[in-house]
Design goal:
It is a single chain. Strands 1, 3, 4, 5, 6, 8 and 9 form a 7-stranded antiparallel β-sheet that branches. Strands 2-7 form a two-stranded antiparallel ribbon. It starts with a helix and ends with a strand. The protein is an alpha+beta fold and 155 residues long. It has 3 helices and 9 strands; from the N terminus they run H-E-E-E-E-H-H-E-E-E-E-E. A hairpin with a 1-residue loop joins strand 3 and strand 4.
Length: 155
């Protein structure tokens, strides 16, 4: 995977998070992982196809997901990670990844994204390649892990 792909994700967070009033956004860390990604509580998986293929596995704790969902719903208290809160998180991930697709299009790299799949609980997800770059993003007082597993299909 080309490391320059990470910039498209960083730019998407910088573009989208402030528009939603979710507060400060910063890169907390970056690491290399293997194919198997342990769930921190909530995972949203999105597939990418086109000039680049693979998947992105976003992860966060249930408490962080509730904090983010609460902010997205204008401060409404989120005590349970119910359907409404899950929908808010899925939409956030959809907006972030759609912005990533736009960023790639600006570089003449065309991709389409799948519908986000949200899974909650303790499990291991399987990335599309053996090497995964994990970028930890801080969103106010919450953390979102962005596990990027992409390969360039453009010849």
């Amino acid at each position: 995977m080309d490391v320059k792909y990470i910039n498209q994700f960083l730019q998407a967070f910088a573009n989208i998070i402030p528009q939603l009033g979710l507060g400060d956004v910063n890169k907390k860390g970056i690491s290399l992982k293997g194919r198997f990604i342990e769930s921190p509580g909530v995972v949203v998986i999105i597939g990418l196809i086109g000039d680049i293929k693979g998947n992105v596995i976003y992860g966060m704790s249930i408490d962080d997901a509730k904090k983010i969902a609460s902010r997205m719903m204008m401060g409404m208290e989120v005590t349970d990670f119910d359907e409404l809160a899950q929908s808010a998180i899925s939409e956030l991930i959809n907006m972030l990844t759609a912005n990533v697709a736009t960023n790639f299009a600006n570089e003449n790299i065309n991709i389409d994204i799948s519908t986000p799949t949200l899974i909650q609980g303790s499990f291991t997800s399987n990335a599309s390649s053996d090497k995964v770059i994990c970028v930890e993003m801080g969103v106010s007082d919450a953390t979102i892990e962005v596990n990027i597993s992409l390969e360039n299909e453009k010849k």
